[in-house]
Every structure is written in structure tokens, then in C-alpha cells.
Design the sequence.
């Protein structure tokens, strides 16, 4: 996948939750992929004011990789979530 | 095998070689599904427990909180969209934080618990699982802050490792789930039942968005479901919506609407109903449901008074539901 960090062995084998795709109805998945239509419909209902473009700005460069010790562990106070 | 189906969550994403699931972080690489944010969080903070919000779980303690990129919901009002609606490769920063180092740091920072939070921990399922196992060994508790959108079997396997969870029920309304979150409600309720059965301490959050999920009949239905399936002692938090992400056109939730929701849920029989993100209004404090004694007075995330004695009301000695030590 373009831009994906290279595999270094940290990726976890998830075959225990994988199977051949033909074994299960995937209609819901396809429905999700129609999400843009849902969003557009929602916009027509007055919920959204602007064009519902799903794309989030993608980093032009790879993420900086830092050790855990570099994390800011000061107590964070803002909205719950 | 050209395509793999991820069976972790109800989306059942069918992922071609080189592609990612809807969550952006579970990818198909060389014939295997891989969780590419394992050991690679992009957010690390120490939060007050009350921020999660968890009001009946080690109150007043600090909780070591981590999150990777990705989410399997796409709520238009997401508060953490910069993290949740991106893949790991789109983040500015990724920390190298294998499970054992996360637990070591939590212990080093004197945090008695770790929260898997901010985005959606269930999409970095294996990271949660592996970290939780080590945390348990070190006497550190595990807390999930999640939308609970996962299949029954993986939740059954994870739940025994989890001590507490705050699960969002976005609305008691399938249409809201479908249109605002791109998901469905039923699997969330099933996941909650699995966690309850496994003995996880549960608190529920419902973010009230004016005009979208504030129908009082639905609020009551939510409270009744919580009462009947999780127990009347289960804390329910009604949180204030703040205009964000793709819902910046809506107003913040009026305080009186939150108060109304709280009254409705209490009338349905829930004993601990709170209001969140609205410091100073009624509904932030814990009272004894038997005699009304003030047990914990809060202002926002701060505990102003604490009167519980060994988890009991100091007046009538009623044991309060929760995890207090």
C-alpha cells in the first residue's frame, strides 16, 4: 500500500479472524462503501452545510517515528472522549 | 488468495491484497491480515479517570492513555477525527511503543490503569490484547473507551482481560447509527452483553446532539435497555456535544436538554445518571441512591469532595456499585 510503513515484524497475524471472502454475505460492507450517498442525503436534509468529502488530508511524507520516551505525558485536560 | 475477509467487526471488510479495511489499519499483505498499528500509537497522554468518563472506577486516579490511528465508525461529529479518520501512514507522529514498554511506562508514571481510548481501540485489537495481558501481570488495570462495534467472538476473547469500559451508545436508533456513524446499533448492544457477562465494570456514554438524537422516547428506551440488560446501577453519562468535524453547523447541546435527558433516565430507574462536558451543572456528583448522601462531589474532571468509605455510603453503609480500589 503506498505510503504504508515498511513491515518490520510488528504486524500481527490475524488469520484467526480471516476466511475466504465468499463464505459470507458482504452486502453490508458494500453498503458502507456507499457512504458518500448517505452523506449527500444527509446534507440534503439540512444537517451538513458543506460538501461531504470524506478524504482526510494525507501526509505527504512518512510519519516521524519516535521512541515512547518522547511522548508528552503531562496530564491532558480537555473535552471528554 | 486474492481477497481476505476481516471478521473482527460487523463490517466484514473484504480486503484485496495491498488494501486496508474500512478502519484503515487492518491490511491485507502477502495473503495475511495484519494489524499495522500494533505497537505504534500516535496519541499518548495521562488523563484524569473522570475524563474517560469513568465515575465509578478508581476515582481521582490518573490513567495512562494510548491510541493508534483508525476507527471502524465514521461519526460526522467525531471529536478525535484527526486520529480516528486516518490510517497510521497518515499521522505526523508514530511512537514505537511495544506492549511491554507501555506497561512499564504506566507503572513508572504511577498510573494504576491503562486506557485504550481516543480513536477506536477495537480496531487495534491485538495491541489492546497483548498490552492487557502484560498489564494484568503487573497489577495494572485495563480500561476500554470504545464504541463497542465488534463481533461477539473477538469480544468474548478480549473481555476477560478488561477491568472497566466506557462504551458509547451513540443513540438508541438504528437510523442514527447508519446515517451519522456509518454503523449499526445491534452489535454494540451484543458486545455490551458479552462484557457484562464477563464481569467488566461498564459505564455508558450518550453524546446528545440537538435535533439528531434528543427524542425523549429514544432516550428513555436507551435507559430502559441499560437498566434491563446491564443493571440499574450502571452509570449513564449524557455528554454535551460540541460542534466539530463535519457537524460544525449544529449548536452545542443546551444544558437544559442534558438535564432533561438525565431526568428521563432517572425516571426509567437508573440510579447513577451523569452530565458530562458541562462543568457546574447538576448531575456531576455521585449520591447514595438509598438516602441521597453526597458521596463524591465533582467539578468537571476534578473531585472536590470524597466521602465513600471502603466503597460504601458513610451514613447508611450501602455498598456502591463500582471499582473503588
Sequence:
Amino acid at each position: 500500500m503506498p505510503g504504508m510503513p515498511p513491515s518490520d515484524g510488528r504486524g500481527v497475524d490475524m488469520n484467526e479472524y480471516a476466511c475466504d471472502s465468499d463464505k459470507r454475505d458482504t452486502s453490508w460492507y458494500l453498503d458502507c462503501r456507499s457512504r458518500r450517498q448517505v452523506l449527500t442525503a444527509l446534507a440534503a436534509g439540512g444537517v451538513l452545510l458543506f460538501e461531504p468529502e470524506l478524504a482526510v488530508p494525507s501526509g505527504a511524507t512518512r510519519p516521524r517515528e519516535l521512541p515512547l520516551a518522547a511522548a508528552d505525558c503531562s496530564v491532558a485536560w480537555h473535552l471528554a472522549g | 488468495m486474492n481477497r481476505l475477509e476481516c471478521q473482527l467487526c460487523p463490517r466484514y471488510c473484504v480486503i484485496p491484497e495491498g488494501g486496508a479495511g474500512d478502519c484503515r489499519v487492518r491490511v491485507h499483505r502477502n495473503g495475511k491480515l495484519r494489524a499495522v498499528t500494533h505497537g505504534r500509537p500516535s496519541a499518548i497522554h495521562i488523563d484524569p479517570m473522570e475524563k474517560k468518563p469513568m465515575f465509578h472506577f478508581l476515582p481521582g486516579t490518573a490513567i495512562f492513555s494510548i491510541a493508534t490511528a483508525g476507527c471502524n465508525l465514521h461519526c460526522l461529529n467525531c471529536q478525535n477525527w484527526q486520529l480516528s479518520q486516518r490510517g497510521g501512514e497518515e499521522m505526523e507522529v508514530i511512537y514505537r511503543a511495544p506492549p511491554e514498554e507501555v506497561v512499564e511506562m504506566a507503572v513508572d508514571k504511577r498510573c494504576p490503569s491503562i486506557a485504550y481510548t481516543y480513536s477506536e481501540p477495537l480496531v487495534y485489537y491485538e495491541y489492546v490484547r497483548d498490552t492487557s495481558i502484560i498489564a494484568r501481570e503487573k497489577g495494572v488495570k485495563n480500561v476500554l473507551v470504545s464504541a463497542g462495534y465488534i463481533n461477539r467472538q473477538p469480544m468474548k476473547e478480549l473481555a476477560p482481560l478488561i477491568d472497566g469500559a466506557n462504551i458509547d451508545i451513540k443513540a438508541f436508533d438504528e437510523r442514527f447509527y447508519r446515517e451519522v456513524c456509518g454503523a449499526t446499533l445491534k452489535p454494540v448492544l451484543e458486545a455490551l452483553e458479552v462484557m457484562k457477562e464477563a464481569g467488566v465494570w461498564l459505564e455508558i456514554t450518550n453524546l446528545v446532539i440537538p435535533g439528531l438524537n434528543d427524542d425523549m422516547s429514544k432516550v428513555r428506551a436507551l435507559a430502559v435497555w441499560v437498566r434491563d440488560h446491564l443493571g440499574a446501577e450502571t452509570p449513564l453519562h449524557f455528554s454535551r456535544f460540541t460542534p466539530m468535524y463535519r457537524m460544525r453547523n449544529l449548536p452545542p447541546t443546551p444544558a437544559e436538554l442534558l438535564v432533561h435527558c438525565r431526568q428521563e433516565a432517572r425516571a426509567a430507574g437508573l440510579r447513577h445518571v451523569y452530565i458530562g462536558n458541562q462543568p457546574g451543572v447538576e448531575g456531576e456528583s455521585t449520591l447514595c441512591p438509598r438516602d441521597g448522601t453526597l458521596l463524591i462531589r465533582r467539578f468537571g474532571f476534578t473531585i472536590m469532595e470524597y466521602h465513600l468509605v471502603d466503597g460504601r455510603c458513610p451514613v447508611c453503609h450501602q455498598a456502591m456499585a463500582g471499582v473503588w480500589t
Observations:
- Chain A touches chain B through 56 residues (CB under 8 Å).
- The longest helix of chain A spans residues 35-44.
- The mean pLDDT of chain A is 46.
